[in-house]
Design a protein that fits this description.
6-stranded mixed sheet; Uracil-DNA_glycosylase-like_sf; hydrolase; Uracil-DNA Glycosylase, subunit E; 6 strands; Uracil-DNA glycosylase; alpha/beta; single chain
């Protein structure tokens, strides 16, 4: 009776280590507790040394030059595998639409929002009297990451570039389709930002522009959750109110 007297502790320990490895714990940290939320300690300076800080990148202040830079070797996605798509449509349009990244099919077609999501997008545009030729379509991330998600450490830079891009256009309104575009311009996910017309002041170099933003759902989300189309229609109505088609 009682506990198994033949318990194999070596096998149990190996099993536990395998479980931790499968869970992603593959690095020994320390035996003592550590406050992971504490700010990092300031760097220790050695007397007589000078710390050289690289100057920030100066972004082009015209739309054509910025689009060329965005597709060039200095862009954050330049070393990624896959075809980049900077923007499409009419850059002088009063309506700009910002999405997160190209779809998987887009690299083949060379067009943002291809496939089923693109067909739904076209119907949404038609419902407000627009076509792809009468809007300016921009992606926060010009090349689709291999995993379909942008690394957190790159988000701040991509958001900065998206704001700069929008500021260089002549758009009066911007539709933010999905969480990444909403975070880029409004600092919050689409669900929290929906339902309001958000006034924004964006800067690109010495240029300062006022624009209004509407957060809504990405077409791929609407394909997965058709019940949200009614709410998306409300967003589109708010978007075009007061704009000439």
């Amino acid at each position: 009776m009682g506990a198994d007297q033949n318990y194999d502790w070596k096998q149990a320990a190996a099993s536990a280590l395998d479980w931790w490895q499968d869970a992603g714990v593959d690095t020994t940290i320390d035996e003592l507790p550590r406050n992971w939320l504490a700010p990092p300690a300031p760097p220790v300076s050695t007397p007589g040394t000078v710390k050289i800080v690289a100057p920030p990148t100066v972004l082009p202040d015209t739309l054509a030059e910025f689009a060329a830079w965005r597709a060039g070797a200095d862009a954050p996605e330049a070393t990624w595998h896959g075809k980049g798509i900077v923007a499409q449509g009419d850059p002088t349009s009063d309506l700009l639409i910002l999405i997160d990244m190209p779809e998987r099919e887009d690299a083949e077609s060379g067009q943002l929002l291809s496939g089923a999501a693109g067909r739904l997008f076209d119907r949404m545009l038609a419902a407000i009297g627009r076509t792809r030729e009468t809007i300016y379509l921009v992606a926060v991330c010009t090349t689709r990451p291999a995993a379909g998600r942008v690394a957190p450490e790159m988000e701040a830079r991509l958001h900065e570039l998206a704001q700069h891009h929008v500021a260089l256009t002549g758009a009066k309104r911007v539709l933010l389709m999905g969480n990444a575009p909403s975070r880029a311009l409004l600092g919050a996910d689409a669900m929290r930002s929906r339902g309001s017309l958000h006034p924004l002041n964006l800067k690109a170099g010495t240029v300062s522009v006022d624009i209004e933003a509407v957060a809504s759902f990405h077409p791929r989300f609407l394909l997965e959750k058709p019940a949200a189309k009614a709410e998306a229609w409300k967003d589109l109505q708010m978007l075009i109110e007061g704009l000439e088609s």
